[in-house]
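Handoff note, outgoing to incoming analyst
You'll be picking up this chain. Sequence as last confirmed:
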Amino acid sequence: MQRALVTGSSSGIGEAVALRLLGDGWEVHGLDLAAPTIEHAQFTSSTVDLSDTAAAKAAATAGCEAGAPDALVHAAGILRVGKLGTLEPDDGMRMWQLHVQAATLLANIVVPKMQAAKSGRVVLIGSRVARGIAGRSQYAATKAALISLARSWGAEVIADRVTVNIVSPAATRTGMLADPARQTTAPRLPPIGRLIEPDEVASMVAYLLSPAAAAITGQDIQICGGSSLAA
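Most recent structure output, in case you need it:
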């Protein structure tokens, strides 16, 4: 049975990914600061603050006790907004720790084990915002960093049949939209006329974890509802 480590598994995209993989017959171990929301015979979880270096390392190590996982999906994230003159260093640091540093700590432990097994998939959840958007510079910077990580790691490990990709959705219907910390900036509705659904992101992640996607690596795949198209 294939086994995946999924961060942010208690809500939003991470929860949708975990549920999709469970439905596809995977065994899933979720990592989240919040209590688990999934009850399934093939689902286990750890409550962990992934922005804590020691905790993230411990979680990654524990996730490899049964051997190299077949997949690592890093979906945990937060959004803090602000324009120049109001930016809070603590907000930027928190996003960097959770989005970038946690991904680095997890991959640093998990991916070498995948390389040794000559098999593995890593998917990082990015954002359309990585290209830059007014009022979200700190968030955009952390998501842009994930793209560079994925391309660099993908180049390092493809010879060992391990792939690393980014899935970057536009505004997605998750609890993050109701976060009081972002109420000064409304989400931008994609040209499709609606928000992206978490299940749509999960479907792309599931494909990237499948044998059919073995030749895809280092790519930033956008689920944007037309947002990336020229007007």
